[in-house]
Design brief:
The complex is a heterodimer of chains A (325) and B (532). With 325 residues, chain A is mostly helical. Chain A contains 12 helices and no strands. Chain B contains 17 helices and 22 strands.
């Protein structure tokens, strides 16, 4: 009950932010030249003036900006995200279709980055300034400095074209008719390269944060106390140091859950995955305002939720931090 | 029987050849049945009904599912698909189509003249881009019997114009599925039903479209079992998937120029402009006459003379482009007037002289004039061309600022707001100049109509030639009128079309019966097959 209460209060506090973001994006897009009919004409490769005029009426673009914004906000109050101009379907349906791929990719690469970042960070911290530390830090720096589209394309060239181990793109093999566990394995195979590509940059960040925070905690008094008590090193690391060093990592996960949604445009395009990032990009190019605002709304909700969960984990990791109830 | 020794020898030699390599002989003659053909789909469309939206992005999918009245044969001449024959009255106001019998829609209902009437009046005339202009003077389609459709026009409609426009603008939709409600909101627009060799199965947005062979096709079942269109927006990723064997065909220059040039050297692929002759385009340089300096013909001529087009083509576009000579490209055998119209070869000294004569003397830093150039965002060739223009004009003292926009922004800035000095993009030539070419020159286009005369320029003589040609029913006179149009348009130079391009096909070498018509990518693929 306390958790629910807290969740409700958090949500209420974020409503003004949400509205500000939505109105801001709406107005920003009004400054971009061209509307969805211009974009459609560009896509069709031509059309006459009569068609364009007719389409503007069809999409309700003959209304004033304030009337369009008012309509949108009023619909939102009733939990109606509106109708997508590109897809000819309700925005909620369009987003629901794209969410699974995005969440799959996001959780897979975040987990990968978090898990290996943690392990590599601990190893680097324990052998600080020795060769494992130097190696891990250098590799991390390379991952961090390399743009992900290049990583993606190179991974395709090596693993799909030369070695032919993994598929070059898509979410599943449509020419096969596999079902059940084989279909799941097929999707997993398709997700390996995108997950690694998206995860490597985050891995680099996590391992650096983990290393720094481990080094800091290792020098604290209670660690010295634990050592003088005669505890063995593994126990000190796992029970005493790790738990305290995890706090910055958890903070980072909360921050990056949001970044991951936006950052996956590149990876989704390179690997032809049907995710939210590509949908958002296409909505901007196509000037599909309803869809774009819908995505921003859903992403904002997701970020708020993840941050809330992060707060709960804080309290669990460090009882000194209360959840403010 | 007169059996000569020579004939006997030849026969035995033929048998021997078959014995030596029977599989080879078989592979060359008999199409292999079955197989899945995977197509690169670069730009998803809002809907897939070709009777409502004319674009290659629609035809590449629905051209296999729905069919037009006529298509083009290998030589580029109209050939009946859903229409078997046609004739026009001498005044060009009545055109009668005899329709194919025993054709059924994928849902089993018969195809009749009522479908043609409904599609023409409710879709081509009211909704279809370019169709609304083409069929502006269509007053009625009469259906005296289920296999005859009589098109009645208020003004003469040249038969050769209609027949060359119909392969793109003549797809038929089933009346019984569309007669209720707004045709644009019909859910079948994303799940098309047609008479073609493949029937729609599934569309997963952002992922793929699937169509399966339709066994009841009127020409007999197609060779392939299934066609899959994979949505891949990244061009480099598409090239990688071609190499990995996940894709068989990338149509309409879907890969980057460098990837196409690379795959052209790979024996597993065929990279060619063949089969795209019906989709010619020219690169443009558009002038805004509202800019005082550009209203002077000498300045426009100077700009054209200052740009070394053959150098650009050779070094940036390679074999996929050639020097253009005006608004009607050389692949259009019916209308191409030849190269002897006014041209502007590279001549830097002359360009400088013309600018001097126009009174544009070099100011501070040698700059005579500063212009804004807006390149269209489709196609990397446009981007390269814009940079080349910028550097070429810099050498004669014209400073060019390149302003890049996305698609919607470009069209709005150039064709609605006229906020440009120079613009560059593609002019798409659709087999007859009256479909989408003369609108670039005809005055009186409403602001906001993309790819039309928005230059602030008007020429009464050219307007008259355009109007006369659009209703001239005699093909010989029509061709002469278009030659006159090109000559006058090139001389007046309201815009310049110095490069001709045809889309490039990248396809697996295993494909057979491909690229055998001028609009093959859009065609039905009923005879396409994949060798082992």
């Amino acid at each position: 009950m306390r958790v629910l209460n807290l969740a409700g209060r958090r949500l209420a506090a974020s409503i003004p932010t949400l509205i500000l973001i939505l109105v801001g994006v709406f107005l920003l897009l009004q400054f971009a030249p061209g509307d969805t009919v211009d974009a459609m004409m560009a896509q069709m490769g031509g059309g006459d003036a009569r068609t364009a005029e007719d389409l503007r009426r069809f999409y309700g673009l003959d209304l004033s900006v304030s009337a369009q914004l008012g309509n949108y906000l009023w619909r939102l109050v009733r939990f109606d995200l509106g109708f997508s101009a590109i897809y000819g379907k309700p925005v909620a349906t369009v987003i629901a279709e794209r969410l699974p791929a995005t969440i799959l990719l996001m959780t897979a690469s975040l987990s990968f980055a978090f898990f290996f970042g943690l392990i590599l960070g601990v190893i680097a911290a324990r052998g600080v300034n020795k060769w494992p530390d130097t190696l891990i830090s250098t590799v991390g720096l390379i991952f961090y400095a390399t743009p992900s589209f290049w990583f993606g394309l190179m991974a395709i060239v090596v693993f799909s074209i030369y070695l032919q181990w993994l598929p070059a793109g898509g979410l599943s093999d449509i020419t096969s008719t596999a079902t059940g566990i084989r279909a799941v394995l097929d999707t997993a195979r398709h997700l390996i390269l995108p997950t690694l590509t998206l995860g490597l940059i985050f891995l680099a960040i996590y391992l650096r944060i983990m290393r720094a925070s481990m080094l800091e905690v290792l020098n604290l008094d209670f660690v010295r106390t634990a050592r003088s008590k005669g505890l063995d090193e593994t126990r000190i690391i796992t029970r005493h140091v790790l738990r305290n060093a995890l706090l910055p990592m958890v903070t980072l996960i909360g921050l990056q859950a949001g970044t991951m949604l936006g950052g996956s445009v590149v990876v989704e395009s390179v690997f032809s995955l049907p995710g939210l990032g590509r949908l958002a990009y296409e909505s901007v190019v196509q000037r599909d305002l309803n869809t774009l605002l819908g995505i921003i709304f859903v992403s904002a909700l997701l970020v708020i939720t993840v941050n809330f969960i992060v707060d709960l984990i804080y309290a669990r990791l460090d009882p000194r931090i209360t959840t403010g109830v | 029987m007169n059996f000569t020794r020579r004939a006997a020898l030849m026969t035995s030699a033929a048998i021997a050849a078959n014995v030596v390599d029977p599989f080879r002989a078989f592979a060359q003659t008999a199409p292999r049945k079955g197989g899945v053909f995977v197509v690169h789909y670069g730009a998803e469309q809002r809907q897939l009904n070709p009777s409502i939206q004319a674009s290659t992005g629609v035809y590449i999918v629905s051209g296999k599912i729905q069919e037009p009245l006529v298509d083009l044969d290998a030589a580029g001449n109209p050939v009946g698909v859903l229409a078997e024959s046609w004739e026009s009255t001498p005044d060009g106001k009545t055109i009668t189509f005899k329709l194919r019998r025993n054709v059924t829609w994928h849902d089993g209902k018969p195809f009749t003249s009522a479908d043609v009437q409904f599609t023409a009046m409710e879709m081509w005339k009211k909704v279809l881009n370019y169709g609304t202009t083409l069929q502006l003077f269509l007053t009625a389609v009469d259906t005296p019997d289920p296999h005859t459709a009589i098109f009645r026009y208020e003004r003469p409609m040249p038969l050769n114009l209609l027949l060359r426009a119909l392969p793109d603008l003549g797809y038929i939709t089933a009346k019984h599925l569309y007669e209720n409600g707004d045709v644009r909101q019909n859910p079948l627009n994303l799940a098309p039903v047609g008479t073609g060799p493949f029937k729609f199965v599934q569309y997963e947005r952002g992922q793929h479209i699937i169509a399966d062979r339709h066994d009841g096709y009127w020409k007999g079942p197609a060779n392939l079992d299934r066609i899959v269109w994979r949505v891949i927006t990244d061009r480099s990723a598409a090239a990688a998937q071609m190499e990995a064997g996940q894709l068989h065909y990338s149509p309409f220059s879907g890969l980057t120029i460098s990837d196409m040039a690379r795959l052209a050297k790979d024996r597993r692929f065929i990279v060619s402009t063949k089969g795209n002759e019906g989709n010619a385009r020219t690169n443009t340089l558009e002038f805004n006459f509202r800019r005082r300096e550009l209203a002077d013909i000498k300045v426009r001529q100077a700009i054209a003379h200052a740009i070394n087009v053959p150098f650009f083509i050779e070094n940036f576009l390679g074999d996929f482009a050639k020097l253009g000579t005006g608004p009607i490209p050389s692949v259009s055998t019916d209308f191409y007037p030849g190269p002897n119209t006014p041209q502007y070869p590279y001549d830097k000294a002359r360009a400088i002289r013309l600018l001097d004569e126009a009174g544009l003397r070099p100011g501070a830093g040698g700059t005579r004039l500063t212009l804004r150039l807006l390149p269209a965002p489709w196609g990397e060739d446009i981007s390269l061309w814009a940079t080349f223009i910028q550097q070429s004009l810099g050498e004669v003292g014209i400073r060019v600022e390149v302003v890049r926009n996305d698609g919607g922004g470009f069209l709005k800035s150039v064709y609605a707001d006229h906020a440009f000095d120079l613009a560059t993009g593609w002019h798409q030539y659709r087999n007859d100049p009256a479909v989408s070419t003369t609108v670039w020159y005809r005055s009186g286009q409403p602001a906001g109509a993309p790819w039309t005369n928005q230059w602030g320029w008007k020429d009464d003589v050219i307007d008259k030639v355009i109007d006369d040609a659009a209703t001239e029913v005699d093909p010989v006179k029509r061709k002469a009128l278009y030659a006159e149009f090109v000559t006058k348009a090139n001389a007046a130079l309201p815009l310049w079309m110095p490069i001709e391009q045809i889309f490039v096909t990248t396809i697996t070498a295993r494909a057979r019966n491909h690229s055998n018509t001028p609009r093959w990518g859009s065609s039905s693929w009923h005879d396409l097959w994949l060798a082992e």
